[in-house]
Specification:
Shape: elongated
Strand content: 25-35%
Radius of gyration: 21 Å
Strand order of the largest sheet: 9-11-10
Helix content: under 10%
Oligomer: single chain
Mean pLDDT: 77
Length: 222
């Protein structure tokens, strides 16, 4: 409850291997429904439905990722049922019809939820830029470079890599191998950062960036 999924949701595989689970290789069609709910224990829950497109899903331990928007605040999340429920059906029918949902085809899976952290103190797209120097283009269907700024609430860990996700509005697309630039020059060659923005520390490097439609996942060094 209070999680928001895109209507045309897109399941995708992670670069990380979650043993003993394997990435699901079957192409999936996914639809999130705002008006159809899964009734469990008297609680109405938003539901999204995935169907294999080309071939069935074989028995096994599978994993996939699905982009969503977290509840707006930690208090909203605390008031929600703290579980995700996965069910598989032999076939799918509309819960509102006289036949109801078909028989469950496999064992239910109930997954404990997670604590929703507080919002960043500040996060924004920087609009005070020279479009030509920064590579920004706001025209429809054009490639563009956006400058994002944010403030962390606490000091980040000094060991291990960090992951950052950018979820754009529906209709935007990131390249499969997206390009991320940090440090000097993002406002243009020789152009200084305008106040109050500052660059990443000199030792930070971008390891990779993977784009999945309107979601970008970046990996950075400390």
């Amino acid at each position: 409850l209070n999680f928001v999924f895109e209507t045309a949701c897109v399941p995708f595989n992670s670069e990380t291997h979650y043993a003993p689970y394997s990435p699901i290789l079957v192409r999936l069609d996914c639809v999130a429904q705002d008006t159809v709910f899964l009734r469990v224990g008297g609680v109405l829950r938003p539901r999204f439905t995935m169907r294999p497109v080309d071939e069935p899903i074989l028995p096994g331990l599978w994993s996939f990722q699905l982009a969503c928007v977290n509840p707006a605040s930690a208090s909203d999340a605390a008031a929600s049922p703290n579980t995700f429920i996965l069910r598989t059906y032999a076939t799918y029918t509309d819960e509102s019809n006289s036949q109801g949902i078909n028989a469950v085809a496999d064992v239910d899976a109930t997954i404990e939820g997670f604590h929703i952290r507080e919002q960043m103190p500040e996060a924004e797209i920087v609009h005070v830029v020279d479009y030509a120097l920064s590579g920004r283009d706001d025209h429809p269907s054009m490639h563009s470079n956006l400058i994002l700024a944010f403030e962390l609430r606490s000091e980040p860990a000094i060991s291990g890599h960090h992951f950052m996700e950018v979820l754009a509005p529906d209709g935007f697309y990131f390249r499969t191998t997206c390009r991320v630039k940090i440090g000097p020059g993002i406002f243009g060659v020789g152009v200084k950062y305008p106040s109050p923005y500052v660059p990443f520390e000199s030792g930070v490097q971008v390891i990779s960036c993977q784009g999945y439609f309107h979601l970008a996942l970046m990996e950075l060094t400390p």
